[in-house]
Structure formats: structure tokens, C-alpha cells
């Protein structure tokens, strides 16, 4: 195995490349809107302006297909947008 020597110029070039890559990653992240795919019941009630009972009826009627995780219901945002046009 042959040893390679790292020069100051190599480190400087690496530094510039790393900074450039980080800038690109940050720019890409800022371009994408942060949208939660799943929302909790309270957020859904606020979005749709409905009561807890109405939301429960929508679940029972099968109009919504939430997932229950640890006692909380989570609703798919896309499903809500497609069904009600809100989000």
C-alpha cells in the first residue's frame, strides 16, 4: 500500500468543493415546500372547519382512511385535498 501526501492546495480545493456542495443542498432544500404528508385530527378539523363528531362520522362512513398510531389518528393530506379541495 502506497501512502499519498495531502497538500495544502488539496485541502483548499476540498474546502471549496465542500462549501459549494453545501450551498447547493441548502438551495435545493429551500426550493421545496415543506408539506407534511400526514396530519393529526386537530389539524384536519381546523382545515375543514368541522367538529370532532363530524370527523368521526367521515371516518365511520369510509370517506377518509386515516391511520391510528398510538391513540392518535393521522390523515393523508393528499386524500383530504382530493376529497375536499382544501389543504
How is this structure best summarized?
With 87 residues, the protein is α+β, with helices and mostly antiparallel strands. The chain has helices at residues 8-31, 41-48, 52-60, 77-84, and strands at residues 38-40, 67-69, 72-76.
Total helical elements: 4
Return the average pLDDT rounded to an integer: 89
Taking the sheet with the most strands, its summary is: 3 strands, antiparallel
Structural class: alpha+beta
Give the strand order of the largest sheet, numbering strands 1, 2, ... along the chain: 1-3-2
The outline comes out as elongated
Protein model, in words:
The protein has 87 residues and is an alpha+beta fold. The protein has a domain at 38-84. Helices cover 56% and strands 13% of the residues. The chain contains four helices and three strands. It has helices at 8-31, 41-48, 52-60, 77-84, and strands at 38-40, 67-69, 72-76. It has a three-stranded antiparallel sheet with strand order 1-3-2. Strand 2 and strand 3 form a beta hairpin. The longest helix is centred in the first third of the chain and has 24 residues, at 8-31. The radius of gyration is 24 Å and the shape is elongated. The chain starts with 7 loop residues before the first helix and ends with a helix. The relative contact order is 0.12.
Amino acid at each position: 500500500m502506497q501512502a499519498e501526501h495531502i497538500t495544502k492546495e488539496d485541502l483548499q480545493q476540498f474546502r471549496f468543493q465542500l462549501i459549494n456542495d453545501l450551498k447547493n443542498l441548502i438551495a435545493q432544500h429551500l426550493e421545496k415546500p415543506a408539506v407534511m404528508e400526514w396530519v393529526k385530527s386537530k389539524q384536519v378539523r381546523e382545515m375543514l372547519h368541522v367538529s370532532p363528531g363530524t370527523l368521526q362520522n367521515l371516518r365511520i362512513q369510509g370517506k377518509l382512511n386515516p391511520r391510528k398510531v398510538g391513540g392518535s389518528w393521522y390523515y393523508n393530506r393528499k386524500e383530504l385535498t382530493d376529497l375536499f379541495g382544501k389543504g
